[in-house]
């Protein structure tokens, strides 16, 4: 069961059945929140409730409260690896049942419509035509429309009303009047076509809406299905001492187990490569489109796909602790939460249906008086009011946009922790970027070789790289890699000596070559000193016999995408700032390359001072987004109006942030803010449409300007338009950059 305990409180996720509109979800939420110590959030689009309750209550008490409200509730049993829930099976079954009701009702309603609307057929059949309409309408009203009537009855028992109440009352009025007229013969005004066509319209709309909601959930479903189902684990045989493979279900994998990942297979869980080299496609998990090279010592994420090499991986996290499980949990939390703009819609929905029922009765009475007691003419405006007023679009406006937006974010490697974060992204006008690992690659590379005297650059580089080949220092690796990229052959060395914090020495043939800081040399020519003073990176000297002959500079270079990403941030109305612990020269060089104003560069910032810098910007009236990836960024991320943690960083940073970026790319920052703002914009568009639709349509229906048939079609179309507008978010980020 999907439950957790926190400070004597438990949390349970429930699959809710029977909800059809915002009034339903608001009613359940209201009933649950009346229980002492209970906090509940009910989501119409996901058909789920998240309930936090004290230890004095049980899950059975929570389920019973929902059932007393007239709805079904099932505690979600979540597989710890795949994340599948019973609600997903219910979705499929419910959709097929809805599809069958829709098809039957459309066919029969079309025939009833023809019998009523085509004069030669209507007049030629006479009363027989009315009886035939009754026989065709009866299955539509009693069977296809049964879900509406059942829900209306269950809610009426609890002195409540929902969208189904409006539909049931409206179609029952039309059907009841027609049946009485047919059997008594006191009038030829019958409205079988109203009952049949309205129910058919609404079922078509509900089916399209359900299909669209399922598509909105597809991103989360895809995440849940990503994980491997089984794994080839290595077991150490006690007798022979050999390692043998055993294929086991992935849920039996434990921390510390070693497992094999062959080419084309999924990595079973988060772990560290013990042996082998390959490339990993992490696009489905992190949104990173470029495969990543891995070797022994590198970390890999579960559910990513292995390329061409065979890897042996040691499991570091399993089950609910894996990256995939955490991503799924965060996305679900965001989708089941409520944005602040939804609260107004909930309050309106709670009183909307009762008000409409009263207004419909008043409409009937006014028309009855105006027409001198003509019940038939007075009935149709009342039915039109009941049908057109259904608040489906209002209830779907926010959750469908959240569902689609957060799902699309997960596909792009963007995890938005809660719907309230959307409001924060709208107000942000300043973004503070860390340098190392955010704007830059985080790995030093060879950038410059300067020589003094006749020594060729490649010869100086060969001498430095040969000595540094004996060291594991990042600067040493950068020099060696840079030499190899330039086709320089590494010479054999002997008597290698590491000088901690200073450099290294080794003999190349009969010459002792020194690579390191200026203090290791007695003579440093002016040209080499100028290279050091330029401060464009970390510069080491190369020489022998006490004299430096060359200066080699390595630097942490900007990512290829950083400049374009910073430009995107500007286009979003954000002012970028650079915050780094590096020296002023390096910081300004990187800022210039990526397009950040030098006045907005803060260099030499100690880890504990990042918080103060964010606070200072806020005191200037700026609304600040902070992007970081380390433990030292946690306080600044928490202080910022919007904290964004690179997923490649530490767990502490991720916990302190509002948005987690699984890609170490500043484009992810722009994507996150852009997607959040667009999601919020779509929510507001949906709400404006839903409010405007009801505000304009109800008076038109009351004045008799809308027939019940048009009202039914318009109401169904309204809900579909809201869902389709939300589904536009699925295409976010697919345009070429």
Tell me about this structure.
The protein is of the alpha+beta class and 737 residues long. It is built from 26 helices and 27 strands. Strand 19 (503-508) and strand 20 form a beta hairpin. 51% of the residues lie in helices and 20% in strands. The model is unreliable at 80-90 (pLDDT under 50).
Features:
737 residues, alpha+beta, 7-stranded mixed sheet, 26 helices
Write the layout of secondary structure elements.
Elements: E1 3-6, E2 9-17, H1 22-33, E3 39-43, E4 48-54, H2 59-68, E5 72-75, H3 86-117, H4 119-125, H5 127-144, H6 146-157, H7 163-184, H8 192-216, H9 218-225, E6 230-236, E7 243-249, E8 258-261, E9 270-275, E10 278-281, H10 283-286, E11 292-294, E12 299-300, E13 305-306, E14 311-317, H11 323-336, H12 340-370, H13 375-388, H14 392-411, E15 414-416, H15 421-427, E16 430-434, H16 435-439, E17 440-451, H17 457-468, H18 474-485, E18 494-499, E19 503-508, E20 511-516, H19 526-534, E21 538-544, E22 547-558, H20 562-571, E23 575-579, H21 584-594, E24 601-602, H22 610-619, E25 624-628, H23 634-639, E26 642-646, H24 651-656, E27 659-661, H25 666-702, H26 708-727
Parallel strand pairs: 16-23, 16-25, 23-24, 25-26, 26-27
Antiparallel strand pairs: 1-2, 2-4, 2-5, 3-4, 6-7, 6-8, 8-14, 9-12, 9-14, 10-11, 10-13, 15-27, 17-22, 18-19, 19-20, 20-21, 21-22
């Amino acid at each position: 069961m999907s439950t957790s305990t926190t400070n004597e409180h438990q949390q349970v996720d429930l699959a809710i059945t029977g909800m059809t509109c915002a009034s339903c979800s608001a009613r359940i939420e209201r009933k649950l929140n009346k229980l002492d110590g209970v906090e509940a959030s009910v989501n119409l689009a996901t058909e789920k409730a998240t309930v936090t309750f004290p230890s004095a209550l049980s899950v059975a008490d929570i389920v019973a409260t929902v059932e007393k409200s007239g709805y079904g509730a099932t505690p979600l049993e979540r597989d710890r690896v795949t994340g599948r829930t019973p609600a997903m099976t219910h979705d499929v079954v419910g959709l097929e049942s809805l599809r069958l009701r829709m098809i039957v009702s459309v066919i029969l309603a079309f025939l009833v419509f023809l019998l009523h609307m085509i004069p030669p057929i209507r007049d030629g059949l006479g009363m027989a035509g009315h009886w035939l309409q009754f026989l065709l309408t009866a299955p539509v009203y009693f069977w296809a429309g049964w879900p509406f009537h059942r829900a209306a009855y269950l809610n009426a028992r609890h002195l409540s009303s929902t969208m189904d109440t409006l539909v049931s009352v409206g179609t029952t009025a039309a059907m009841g009047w027609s049946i009485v007229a047919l059997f008594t013969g006191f009038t030829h005004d019958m409205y079988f076509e109203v009952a049949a066509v309205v129910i058919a319209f609404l079922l078509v709309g509900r089916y399209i809406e359900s299909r669209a909601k399922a598509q909105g959930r597809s991103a989360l479903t895809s995440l849940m299905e990503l994980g491997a189902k089984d794994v080839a684990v290595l077991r150490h045989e006690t007798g022979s001492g050999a390692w043998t493979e055993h294929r086991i279900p992935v849920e039996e994998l434990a921390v510390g187990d070693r497992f094999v990942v062959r080419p084309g297979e999924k990595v079973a869980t988060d772990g560290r490569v013990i042996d082998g080299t390959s490339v990993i496609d992490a696009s489905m998990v992190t949104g990173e489109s470029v495969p990543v090279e891995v070797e022994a010592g590198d970390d890999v994420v579960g559910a990513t796909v292995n390329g061409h090499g065979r890897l042996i991986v040691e499991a570091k996290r399993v089950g609910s602790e894996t990256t995939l499980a955490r991503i799924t949990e965060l996305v679900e939390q965001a989708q089941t939460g409520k944005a602040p703009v939804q609260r107004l819609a909930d309050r309106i929905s709670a009183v909307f249906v009762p008000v409409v029922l009263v207004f419909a009765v008043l409409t009937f009475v006014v028309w009855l008086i105006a027409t001198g007691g003509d019940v038939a003419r007075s009935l149709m405006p009342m039915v039109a009011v009941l049908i057109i007023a259904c608040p489906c679009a209002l209830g779907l406006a926010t959750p469908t946009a959240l569902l689609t937006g957060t799902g699309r974010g997960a596909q792009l490697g963007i995890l938005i922790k809660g719907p309230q974060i959307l409001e924060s992204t709208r107000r942000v006008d300043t973004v503070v970027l860390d340098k190392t690992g955010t704007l830059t690659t985080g790995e030093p590379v060879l950038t410059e070789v300067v020589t003094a005297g006749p020594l060729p650059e490649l010869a100086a580089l060969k001498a430095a790289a040969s000595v540094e080949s004996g060291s594991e220092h990042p600067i040493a690796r950068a020099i060696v890699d840079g030499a190899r990229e330039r086709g320089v052959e590494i010479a054999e060395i002997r008597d290698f000596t590491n000088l901690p914090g200073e450099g290294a020495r080794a003999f190349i043939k009969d010459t002792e070559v020194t690579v390191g800081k200026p203090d290791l040399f007695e003579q440093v020519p002016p040209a080499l000193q100028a290279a050091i003073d330029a401060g464009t990176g970390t510069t080491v000297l190369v020489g022998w016999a006490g004299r430096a002959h060359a200066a080699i500079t390595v630097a942490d270079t900007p990512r290829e995408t950083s400049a374009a990403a910073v430009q995107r941030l500007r286009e979003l109305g954000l002012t970028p700032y650079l915050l780094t612990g590096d020296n002023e020269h390096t910081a300004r060089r990187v800022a210039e390359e990526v397009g950040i104003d030098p006045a907005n560069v803060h260099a030499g910032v100690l880890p504990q001072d990042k918080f103060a810098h964010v606070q200072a910007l806020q005191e200037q009236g700026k609304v600040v987004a902070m992007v970081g990836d380390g433990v030292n960024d946690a306080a600044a991320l928490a202080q910022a109006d919007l904290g964004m943690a690179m997923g490649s960083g530490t767990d502490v940073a991720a916990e302190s942030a509002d948005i987690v970026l699984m890609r170490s790319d500043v484009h992810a920052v722009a994507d996150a803010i852009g997607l959040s703002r667009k999601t919020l914009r779509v929510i507001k568009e949906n709400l404006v449409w839903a409010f405007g639709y009801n505000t304009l349509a109800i008076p038109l229906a009351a004045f008799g300007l809308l027939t019940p048939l048009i009202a039914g079609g318009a109401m169904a179309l309204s809900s579909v338009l809201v869902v389709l507008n939300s589904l536009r978010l699925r295409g976010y980020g697919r345009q070429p950059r």
